[in-house]
Structures are given as structure tokens and as C-alpha cells.
Known about the structure:
The strands form two sheets. Strands 1-2-3-5-7-10 form a six-stranded mixed beta sheet, sandwiched between helices. A four-stranded mixed beta sheet has the order 4-6-8-9. The protein is globular. It has two domains: about 200 residues, 2-enoyl-CoA Hydratase, Chain A, domain 1 (Alpha-Beta Complex), CATH 3.90.226; about 50 residues. It is α/β, with parallel strands linked by helices. About 0% of the residues have low confidence.
Amino acid sequence: xxxxxxxxxxxxxxxxxxxxxxxxxxxxxxxxxxxxxxxxxxxxxxxxxxxxxxxxxxxxxxxxxxxxxxxxxxxxxxxxxxxxxxxxxxxxxxxxxxxxxxxxxxxxxxxxxxxxxxxxxxxxxxxxxxxxxxxxxxxxxxxxxxxxxxxxxxxxxxxxxxxxxxxxxxxxxxxxxxxxxxxxxxxxxxxxxxxxxxxxxxxxxxxxxxxxxxxxxxxxxxxxxxxxxxxxxxxxxxxxxxxxxxxxxxxxxxxxxxxxxxx
Length: 263
């Protein structure tokens, strides 16, 4: 019997790759072990052309990720030498940003701290009516990393970001939707079905076009001098010269749905 209670697991469903965070004793708080497992899963998904969309979720319906595992902070953060080498949710955030496939965070219940950082690195965030989102750094004596703050500011603006960071308050799903922190809100019973339906729709679209859109939109957040203009043009040219573009034209003329292969 598998008795491990802290883990990140992969579940493949056709073109959808699920990354599930499980730490039932602590509302899916993320541990260093879970970080290592999540990084390997994301590497596998990045290398597999059959996986076209990645969905992140927490096990159960009480929490997405409730933050870092505070019970281990004395060992992992109080010692500067240990803190310098530890793996953290920030490593998962970086891996998600580098992934050139769509990522959706499906958020049941609590999404706090490091969990919020991971959700911010997703391309889209779908929540339930029971979702509560926040970054309690001010309540923990923590200074949040600049890259994570930029993701937050890009979504909600500097004033709202300051409110969230200085107060440490939790936002209910209705407010999170209104300020753009969530893209959609569904009932707890409908959240998985609605998220999966959306993901399957995206997975059926042209992968080269989707990759170009994700990368180019992310590049717009950089100063012009920092943008990889050559890479952007390569992706545009690759899509224009692809078999998928020809397939879409044939499908239109034949009045059928195109079948995209990412080539």
C-alpha cells in the first residue's frame, strides 16, 4: 500500500496532463519533496508532444495549495545555508513560465502564499465559489520574490497588489474574478468538468499557434530590448509554413473540423 502523504503526481487524460499536489494533512501545503516531483513531471510534459494542455490542481476540494509547509520552516528557512540550497515553489513557478504549453490552475478552496505564486505562473486560473486567494507574506515576516510580485502586478495592478501584500487578506472568488485574478468561477461540483471542457477545446486547436501566442504575449511584458525578436519571428514563420495551416485551409473548404498535429 502506498502510504506517502506528500507528493505531486501526474495523470494523463488524452492531450491533457494533470499535475496534482497532495498533502492531505496540511491542505496541500507544498514540501521540497513535492517540488522535486512537480519539476520532473513538468519536464516530462514539456518533452511529450502528445500533452497539449497542463492542468494544475490540489488533491480534494479543500485547497489548491495552502502555501509552503510551515511545519518544516525551522529546518528549511531558519538556517541560511539550508535555505540557500532548498527547492521551493519558486522553482515550480519558473518551470511553469518556461513551459511553452498552456497551463490552467484549477483552484478549489484555499490558494495561498507559495500556492498563489504557482497559480500566478499559470496562463489561466479557474476557481470555485469556495475559493480563497491571498499572499500572507506580511503575516509571516516574508518578503515575496520580485518575479512573483511582477506576475501579481501584471494581473491586478500595483494598487491592488499593494493592498493584498500589505494586508495579507484573503480574497473571495467574486472579488478575485472582478479584479482579474481569476478568469472564471464555477460551483465546486462543476469546476472540474468546466475546466476540463475548456482544456480539451484548447487542446484541439493548433499547437504551433497556441505556443506562439503564449510566448509572444509573455514577451510583451518585457522591455523591447529584452525581447527575443528572432525567436518570435521563427515561431510566426513556423506556423505560417506548417502543415496545420494547410490543414485548416482544407478543412474550411471541405466544411469540416481541422485535425491539428503540431507540425
